[in-house]
Design brief:
This protein is α/β, with parallel strands linked by helices. The chain has helices at residues 11-24, 45-50, 52-63; strands spanning 2-5, 30-35, 38-44, 74-77, 86-89, 109-111. It has a 6-stranded mixed β-sheet. The chain binds zinc ion. Zinc ion binds at residues 78, 80, 83, 85, 100, 102-103, 106. Residues 78, 80, 83, 85, 100, 102-103, 106 line the site of zinc ion (ZN).
Length: 112
């Protein structure tokens, strides 16, 4: 699972969306964070909810469950069967479609 952000200004929305994502998908233990093409390491569920930011977001989210639709990810998956690439994005630009890191000739498709 890779969380791809095109701008640092998206981080706030991404953290909100991630709080929601972790709450909805209990199997997801960590996401890899990439901002403007630079890998910034992993955000894991435990750290996320124990960190002051995560806790605050968790509380904010609990106050308005099931969460604001404004803070959800666009999910993009690789069309190659069996490929596990899943990219989370806040904004999707049709002019700049992300490609699978394992299959660079494949454009990722929106998962609905
Ligand atoms: Zn792939």
């Amino acid at each position: 699972m890779i969380l791809v952000l095109d701008a640092e200004t998206e981080i706030d929305a991404a953290l909100h969306a991630l709080a929601r994502y972790f709450a909805e998908d209990r199997r997801c233990a960590a996401v890899r964070l990439q901002v403007q093409g630079k890998p910034l390491g992993y955000l894991n569920r435990g750290d996320f909810f124990s960190a002051p930011t995560g806790t605050r977001l968790g509380e904010a989210q609990g106050a308005q469950l099931p969460g604001s639709p404004a803070y959800s990810f666009i999910r993009l998956a690789c069309p190659v069967e069996g490929c596990e690439t899943l990219v989370l994005k806040i904004h999707y630009d049709e002019q700049d479609t992300p490609r699978c890191p394992r299959h660079p000739d494949k454009v990722l498709q929106i998962v609905t």
